[in-house]
Write a structure and sequence with these properties.
- The chain is built from eleven helices and eight strands.
- The radius of gyration is 18 Å and the shape is globular.
Length: 271
């Protein structure tokens, strides 16, 4: 395998998109690695630190299994972990590790390698920075740069197709593909007109702030020390997830389609 170093035609981009969609992606987009620098990536976590010569990041997302969005009370929110946890384990960043988002990123990387370009998948979970609670490259920021969606008030990736039920994956490559245009961030602002800041009000530990701030540590502590404990897990067994903010977010549902043009149906908050 050798890096061609040339600029592939649109045919390669179309081939990758067709392959990704056939394998289960809802959408796939392309961004220049230089766009990711806007997210303030520190040294050691820039694309070329991971893949020397990286030119492009490919981002895609899978649709979560739609679950009933019902109103719960008090500690019943804590008991309502099954919906998000199932998606979390099956689609991205959960045990047994080789989840669907990561597996699809691997398959796309292999396709590019066969075409002569160095490529490496970006994992949706481990390894990640447990001190600063961030992935080696943010799946969410990659998706935004690739024109797939926006980051909502709940700090989740919101897409027109799936709303908050969007599980991203990504890979780096030395192939130079034409970047896609970013979307205007309007899904969350328009949804707020009907949701009355549902994610802020529903968060069991008030981690989501109305002014856009987010307390990662409060969220993580709740996941480790409360959610799993209710079901008999040790603190380090973090398969179960809260998912309240996803459950109450109506972005992408039918009642938002009329308000948001193109409406439709990192991993959690951290990557």
């Amino acid at each position: 395998m050798s890096d061609k170093g040339d600029i592939p035609t649109d045919a390669l981009k179309k081939e990758i998109a067709a392959f990704a969609m056939e394998e289960g992606a809802e959408a796939i987009g392309v961004a220049s690695v230089y766009d990711l620098l806007e997210a303030g990536l520190p040294e050691g976590r820039r694309p070329w630190d991971i893949l020397p010569g990286a030119q492009t990041i490919l981002s895609f997302f899978l649709m979560g299994i739609e679950t009933p969005r019902v109103t719960r009370k008090d500690n019943e929110w804590i008991r309502g972990t099954a919906e998000h946890s199932i998606n979390f384990v099956l689609l991205g960043s959960g045990w047994p590790g080789a989840t669907q988002a990561d597996l699809l990123a691997y398959k796309i990387a292999r396709l590019l390698i066969r075409r002569g370009f160095k490529s490496i998948p970006i994992p949706s979970g481990h390894p990640y920075d447990k001190i600063n609670l961030r992935g080696i490259i943010s799946q969410k920021h990659a998706a935004v740069s690739a024109g797939l969606g926006e980051i909502g008030l709940n700090q989740l990736l919101l897409t027109p197709q799936c709303g908050s039920q969007s599980y991203p994956g990504a890979l780096l490559t030395t192939a130079h593909l034409e970047p896609d245009s970013k979307r205007e961030a309007r899904l969350c602002p328009e949804t707020q007109k009907i949701c009355d800041l549902a994610c802020v009000k529903a968060c069991p530990v008030s981690a989501i702030k109305e002014d856009g701030r987010f307390d990662k540590k409060a969220c993580l502590k709740f996941l480790y020390e409360v959610i799993g404990k209710e079901f008999g897990y040790q603190y380090y067994q973090h398969i179960l997830r809260c998912g309240v903010c996803m459950n109450v977010c109506p972005a992408g549902e039918n009642n938002v389609k009329g308000a948001v043009e193109g409406g439709g149906g990192d991993i959690d908050h951290f990557p």
